[in-house]
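Entry 12.
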Amino acid sequence: MSIPSRLFRDADDLELLKQFIMDIWADALYPSYFHVGDLLWSIYQNTLFEPSRNIRIWQTVEGILAGFALFSVGRTDFGANVQIHPAYHENADLYDAMLQWLDERVAEERKKYSVQKELSTSAYENDAALQAALVRHGYIAGDIGLLHFSRQLDSLLLEPILPLGWEVRHVGNEEEWNERVNIHRDVWYPSRVTLDAYTYLRTIDGYIPQLDLVAVTPDGMFASYCLCWLDTLNQCGEFEPVGTRAAFRRQGIGKALIQEGLQRLFLSGATTAIVSTYNTNLAARRLYESVGFHVVSVERDYSKRLEP
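Predicted 3D structure (tokens):
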């Protein structure tokens, strides 16, 4: 029996998905592809993403959420993410329905976006059900993509060490928001993050101003930044995104920033912290390992070429 599906609607659906993700995170036997921070950042990092068009929810007639799929338009490819509840993990028809919908979204968006030549996603190496579904739908396995890091938070860390006159703090009032956007755009150039998007992000339930951190030079420039998120059910904090301007890298600035974030997450009730980066990003890997993170899981890239 097929499971009914519908497009994302409103704030109630956002709360539904947040709770769904936290419930999955609590199941140690099945991998979660999202932390609540990943969901919120995916939706609200820019004003181009339309959740009412790009998130589809599969929910039984009894109201049980079986899973959801998320479609995104990247600069060079289309992106796809699927998340299924552990109870439906072996439901091949559900995977097929999700991947079919993603194909339909590609067909719609290619009328407007012609540069994108691939549909890309990823799967944990131990997620055989998703891997099999992706292969059925024409995806080809690639290299190791994302590395997922974790560390326990069981005590306060040492205070961050910064050069004289520097400080690590959370972003201040509205007059600093443009600089906060600028550092993100500098680090992740070219970026679609805008002041309007950041301003709206700050209004979303789940954004915590005290966990939006910056390392500030003596003359007031934002040199490094990170945004932390908190899953209160599982007491798990996430760093997403993290970045340091090129002129300030390899000087211990990013490390001090992460240490402050870990401190604040611990004081907010987190017992675990996570962060992810691509396997090819050696600098980020060294940074996270230097503050006690270690790799706990990996995702392999999957993609399929789109027909002309």
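Annotation: The mean pLDDT is 95. The chain is about 30% helix and 30% strand.
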